[in-house]
TrEMBL record:
SUPFAM superfamilies: Enolase C-terminal domain-like, Enolase N-terminal domain-like. Coiled coil: none annotated. Keywords: Lyase, Magnesium, Metal-binding. Residues 124-229 form the Mandelate racemase/muconate lactonizing enzyme C-terminal domain. It comes from Enterococcus hulanensis. InterPro entries: DgoD-like, Enolase-like_C_sf, Enolase-like_N, Enolase_C-like, Galactonate_deHydtase, Mandel_Rmase/mucon_lact_enz_CS, Mandelate_racemase_C, Mandelate_racemase_N_dom. The lineage of its organism: Bacteria, Bacillati, Bacillota, Bacilli, Lactobacillales. Transmembrane segments: none annotated. This is Galactonate dehydratase. The gene is dgoD.
């Protein structure tokens, strides 16, 4: 079997799909993260994948090493290109052997996958109502963004808004739902200390990205101040990015993204590193259906994954949602807050290629909001 072609589809709202075709008619799907650099990522996919034409798709680790080991390497653009291609190769391999990817990675360790649902939107409000809705649909856990923009030192009014949101959730559903709180890198060290201390009373499931991951020393300081589990990892691009974080002891939960950190096997390697330090994993997956399906494969065979982000109905999905591009929609059917372990070959997902080709004709331009603080300085989104 040889790779004969690699196609790239830019799909609204903000997804990039990769399709790897072979001379035996077996094709595999992958997904890359576009974000604010869609065309840059598309060009990187093309440059990275030129080497693969005519190669055996089964030699995934060999191809990964050759795609990764440029003189200048790493970073989100390069690594999301590698990730999407790698996913597609695993999809081909699973289809060739008529087995789910997790069977090729050691077999499943769980019978079902616990998932959580987003509530509140980019500037969180009505979270009490949203929490009631999610509980009525059987979810056991939710996650919300903690705050809007926040300066290095900001007013206590901003803190009160965060606490009022958490109070609204507890008033609505009590302790029935576990609640993850995502600071999203919007909060700087001083305000993070204040917020985390105040939030302890609400017993959150975790605090995500209390500060930006590059502020490693601040992360260590915050970890020593609280008993709330701290989580991070969605911006990290490979196992070497995770190495210092894991050995620092500052994190309780890692959140690798299979569409960014190198793909399926690299994510599993990162989770294995964390498991050796008794650290949990809650993979990041707020993008499209292929990335989520690939992440489900990792979850199925990875012991220290305890919960999975899922993006069905997330506030970023405008115009299209995950199920629009999927034929076997049951793969993303959640029963009482759990997804079934996928049973189909490869990634277990059947894509609606006709619709993908139709909507991919449109240009794709998505950019995250540009926020400002009260004094006009740039605020983290």
């Amino acid at each position: 079997m040889k790779i004969v072609d690699i196609e790239v589809f830019k799909v609204k709202p903000r997804w990039i799909f990769v399709k790897v075709n072979t001379d035996e008619g077996i094709s595999g799907w992958g997904e890359c993260i576009g974000g604010t650099r869609t065309e840059t990522v598309v060009n990187c996919i093309k440059e990275t994948s030129e080497y693969l034409i005519g190669k055996d798709p089964m030699e995934i680790e060999r191809h990964w090493q050759l795609m990764y080991r440029f003189f200048f390497r790493g970073g989100p653009v390069h690594m999301t290109a590698v990730s999407g291609i790698e996913m597609a190769l695993w999809d081909i391999k699973g289809k060739c052997y008529n087995a789910p990817v997790y069977d090729l990675l050691g077999g499943k360790v769980r019978d079902r996958l616990m998932v959580y649902s987003w509530i509140g939107g980019d500037r969180p409000d009505k979270v009490g109502e949203d929490a009631l809705d999610r509980r009525s649909r059987g979810f056991k856990a939710v996650k919300l963004l903690a705050t809007e923009e926040m300066h290095y030192i900001d007013s206590y009014d901003k803190v009160e808004k965060v606490l009022n949101n958490m109070q609204a959730i507890r008033d609505s559903v009590g302790m029935d739902l576990q609640v993850g709180i995502d600071f999203h890198g919007r909060v700087h060290k001083a305000m993070a200390k204040t917020l985390i201390k105040e939030l302890e009373a609400f017993k959150p499931m975790f605090i995500e990205e209390p500060v930006l991951p590059e502020n490693e020393e601040a992360f260590i300081d915050l970890a020593q101040r609280t008993n709330i589990p701290l989580a991070t990892g969605e911006r990290l691009c490979n196992r070497w990015d995770y190495k210092r974080l894991i050995t620092s002891g500052a994190v309780d939960i890692i959140q690798p993204d299979a569409a960014l950190c190198g793909g399926i096997l690299e994510t599993k390697k990162i989770c294995a590193m964390a498991e050796a330090y008794d650290i949990a994993a809650a993979p990041h997956a707020p993008y499209g259906p292929v990335a989520l399906a690939a992440t489900f494969q990792i979850d199925a065979c990875t012991q220290n994954v305890f919960i999975q982000e899922q993006s069905l109905g997330i506030h970023y999905n405008k115009g299209f949602d995950l199920l629009d591009f999927v034929k076997n929609k049951e793969i993303f059917h959640y029963n009482n807050g759990f997804a079934e372990v996928p049973k189909g070959p490869g990634l277990g997902i059947e894509m609606n290629e006709e619709l993908i080709r139709e909507v991919a004709v449109d240009d794709l331009s998505w950019s995250n909001p540009k926020w400002k603080n009260y004094d006009g300085t740039m605020a983290e989104w």
